[in-house]
Design brief:
This protein is an all-alpha fold. The chain is built from nine helices and no strands. The radius of gyration is 16 Å and the shape is elongated.
């Protein structure tokens, strides 16, 4: 309730009272901070999470995108690579909005992991979504 009202101070107080917080409660806080534009606090919450899921990653990346910091969202993707490329792709698939930066990032992630066929498939999907590849895109292919 406090998160919906954008009262993150009260929401955090209630969160701190939870004796065994789960991924859902952590994600709610992360989503609330990102939605209210407090990305530094959202990042701290994300970094403190005992366990992350696709919603966690999506909330953080979408938060950076929605708050006008697309390059920071790009910086988050290498963490995905360490935690699994399939997780990164799941988050990419669930992103509410995609831009050239998110397309280039997922394409680069596949290329850096030696997934040539998948890299080319993503490039075709990017073109089908009416995004023009940049020099960076072609450098990844």
């Amino acid at each position: 309730m406090y998160i919906k009202c954008s009262n993150m101070e009260y929401a955090h107080r209630e969160f701190d009272k939870i004796t065994q917080s789960d991924t859902v409660s952590w994600n709610a806080m992360l989503f609330g901070y990102a939605g209210s534009g407090s990305m530094s606090t959202a990042q701290v919450m994300f970094d403190s999470m005992p366990e992350r899921d696709v919603v966690s990653w999506n909330s953080l990346i979408s938060g950076y995108l929605q708050n006008g910091n697309s390059w920071k969202s790009v910086e988050v993707f290498p963490q995905f690579q360490r935690e699994g490329l399939s997780d990164a792709h799941q988050v990419f698939d669930k992103m509410p909005t995609r831009d050239a930066v998110s397309w280039n990032t997922i394409i680069a992630a596949y290329e850096q992991n030696g997934k040539v066929h998948e890299t080319l498939q993503l490039l075709v999907q990017m073109l089908s979504s009416y995004f023009e590849p940049a020099e960076f895109t072609f450098g990844s292919v």
